Amino acid sequence: MSQLDPTHFELDRGATSPLSDQLSDELQRRIEGGLLPRDSRLPTTRELAASLGINRGTVQAAYRRLREKGLVEGRVGSGTVVRGAGAPPPPPFRLGEQLSQRAATLPDEPRPVVASPLVADFSRLTPDERFFPFEDFTRTLSETWSQRRDLWQYAPPLGLEELRDEIARRLGEHGIVRASDEILVTSGAQQGLDLLFRTFTDPADLVAMESPTYSGALALARLSEAAILPLEMDENGPDPRPLRGRRTKLVYVMPERQNPTGVTMGESRRVELLEAALSAGAIVVEDGYEEPESGFSPLAAMEPERAVWLGTLSKDLVPGFRIGWIAAARPIVERLARVKQAADFQTPVPLQAAIAAFLRAGSDRKIRAARAAAVTERSSAMGRALRRTLPTVDWWGGEGANPLFWLRLPAGVSGRRVAEAAGARGVAVAAGQDFDPRGEDRPEVRLSASRVERSDIEPGIERLAEAVGEVEMRSNAALSAPVV
Predict the structure, then answer these.
(1) Rounded CA gap, 445 and 423, in Å?
(2) What are residue 284's DSSP bridge partners?
(3) Domain range 156-346, CATH class
């Protein structure tokens, strides 16, 4: 019960000071004078407001001032309780101090501001959803959900068997022989990669990655506090020599149309990389974000025991589905499945069933064929525009249906500054720094033809050329400035 007698309050309604301040000052005097001892309960705001004939919000404001001074506190089941005179105020809440060391390793990644209107978006490597048969798939999903009650329950730990069967069949077409119980369905390839880091690395463990490489993989490596060993890229793929003589936990690579460079790893380089990775004791993670089209053997086919295939529907069909998979030797998959179950139990079952039906019907192949034709046309147009407006800049990628162009800018030209200058002109590109394992600025930018409108390519490249010229001029001026 409250020990406060409200009849002895004197509130001056004609005073200039707010009633809430008067009330909090009076309560503070009683607490400091011992009239309200420690652990005594104050009336509820409704009770005190009614007793004093004032607004309830006035009492709430007075109680809030007392809490800020550390004189009272809210307790579950007791309401507002006196802490005592002179009690120290609670420390201010600072979110940064609550962060784990792992989360604190993720830096802010400010993107260049792109002026409006947007002239051309070369920054995103995502499929053009206009090629996807939304109505057909929505119908498949609805029918699957309504007719199969088994999909309303938990799926097997590895994922829906019919989807795993179809994935296994597709992998077999590329020489990757896996049984359905050697496949784990994940919520996108990003979750699959996260599971690999969680399962097989501890802080400071060495993880080898191409340089440059996929920014999402870099974020996970930093979050896991792994030590990153960069494997520098050339026109044939990553240089495997840094792996020799080192104990490495994971080697993460993209042999087909590497993101961001667009380079496809040559056959002899694949053999060299595998030999170096195995001698380093590593598990090789092959990111197959695109189906193999080069004709070269996937690493997962060349080394079935230690190479893991990471697949996804996000990059070539629909990112919003968040369906991916890991195909690996059974002991690896079983370990990964335990970690996944600890985090989220399973990937949505009705979606798995609908995608299984979608893949069985070959619908994805039709989409890929149409998309490849459009990307080939866009890439050709982009190559022509680059050769005309930036004749001194060369690039990797951009051939055939490969949407990626890795522009190698003149020495000393900042990729970050070029991205900013292009953004100011309404053109979005990705700075090379976003893909650098060390987080350093690079004289490179990535362009993607996967979503840009055909009519926007030429004006977009022209404005990009203006941005490159502006940054190069500034760089040259800075270098030629006299030192005083």
Answers:
(1) 13
(2) 251, 307
(3) alpha beta
pLDDT-derived band of residue 85, with 50, 70 and 90 as boundaries? low
Strands 206-211 vs 250-253: parallel, antiparallel or unpaired: parallel
- Provide the mean pLDDT of the chain: 88
3-class SS at 196?
Answer: helix
What was the pLDDT predicted at 394? 94
d(C-alpha 176, C-alpha 308), whole Å: 10
What is the Cβ-side half-sphere exposure of residue 123, based on CA atoms within 13 angstroms?
A: 23
The alpha-helical segments, DSSP class H, found in 286-427 are 299-302, 330-344, 349-360, 363-389, 415-424
Report, at the CATH architecture level, how domain 112-128+365-478 is classified.
Answer: Alpha-Beta Complex (3.90)
Q: How far is CA 13 from the centre of its chain?
A: 57
Mean pLDDT, range 77-88, rounded to an integer: 75
Cis before 117 (ω within 30): yes
CA distances from 271 to 238, 239, 257, 435, 470 (A): 12, 12, 17, 25, 43
Average pLDDT over residues 141-146: 74
Q: Which two tokens stand for residue 475?
A: 């760089």
Q: Are 312 and 188 in contact (CB under 8 A)?
A: yes
242: number of Cβ within 10 Å: 17
Question: Could you give the CA distance from residue 169 to residue 362 in angstroms, rounded to a whole number?
Answer: 12
Structural contact between residues 426 and 117, judged by C-beta atoms closer than 8 angstroms:
yes
Provide the CATH number for the domain formed by 6-82 in this structure.
1.10.10.10
Note the helical H segments in 2-114: 19-32, 45-52, 56-68, 95-98, 101-104
Place of tokens 């009272």: 72
Q: Measure the CA–CA gap between 313 and 323, rounded to whole angstroms.
A: 6
Q: Locate CATH 3.90.1150.10 in the chain.
A: 112-128+365-478
To which residue do tokens 């139990």 refer?
345
Q: Which residue has the tokens 């350093």?
A: 440
Its pTM surpasses 0.90: no
Is 202:180 a contact under the CB 8 Å cutoff? Answer: no
Summarised one tens digit per residue, pLDDT across range 451-471 is 899 999 999 999 999 999 999
Alpha-carbon gap, residue 311 to 324, rounded angstroms = 5
